[in-house]
Amino acid sequence: MKSKNLAPIVLFVYNRPYHTKQTIEALQKNKLAKDSELFIYSDAPKNIEAKKSVDEVREFIKNIDGFKKVTVIEREKNWGLANSIIDGVTNIVNRYGKIIVLEDDLVTSPYFLKFMNEALEFYQDEKRVWHISAWNYPVNIDIKDDVFLWRVMNCWGWATWKDRWNFYEKDVDKIISTFSKQEIKRFNLDDTENFWAQVMGNKDGIINTWAIFWYATIFENSGLCLNPTRSFIKNIGLDGSGVHCGVQKSDNLELNLKKDIKYIRKIKENRKALNSIKKYYLSKKKSLFVRIINKLSRFFLKRNIL
Description:
The protein is of the alpha/beta class. Helix content is 40%, strand content 15%. The protein has helices at residues 17-28, 48-61, 81-96, 112-122, 162-165, 172-178, 181-187, 196-203, 211-220, 271-302; strands at residues 9-13, 37-42, 69-74, 98-103, 106-108, 129-133, 147-150, 158-161, 224-228, 233-235. The strands form two sheets. An eight-stranded mixed beta sheet has the order 3-2-1-4-8-6-9-7, with helices on both faces. A two-stranded antiparallel sheet has the order 5-10. The chain is globular.
């Protein structure tokens, strides 16, 4: 691809120097990195405890090379992840017309940038495609294609275009008032997962997130999202160090190392892929239920209650 056609990369960092370094090092191994512009948004510490690690991150990102150009934006006050992403994505996508977005705990395949830029170019004029994801669930999807389209947005390494992002709206009251019960069910993948809980969590002030509203925007406009069948990215931050992510067991994903991806022209939700991911969510629920029962059983046995 010609360098002038490459999308800018926008990376959001905060107070995790170890994760940030791994994210940058993996990104530098992409062949297209040297021809890509990188924008790094560094949020300010929200308290004195975070200052040391924020300063460490900022010292590291000052000396990054391996890209066509690196621009660091240091926030003078703490914006929080959601507000920082909304503002940063809006500013950059409005200037360049398209964008690739990363956070500071994502390790990419050497072919991540190739995949994202090719997909952005391939689907640029296909207005039913709103979002490109680099990540996919750790599940065997029984399809021959390299990619598939479906309704849900994944935000672990993603891309979009200005004319789609312009529809983004974070209006929780509007969403709650306009979504019907049937739409909420579809939004929740036919109740195999509870994405709607994130909407209500924002409404109740329990969380302050951005991604669920991007999914809602796409959903309301009958948009589709492109996923690879094998991930070009993995999350290394599910260790309790990030915002809104607790400690989770690693899925040990093997990164996709396929250089040449075949993109699909049939713009329709892939039912096989959809059903595979539904089964994945149902298996997670079953697994959680079994773990709870086993934990309760051990609790009662220790106390000779059972």
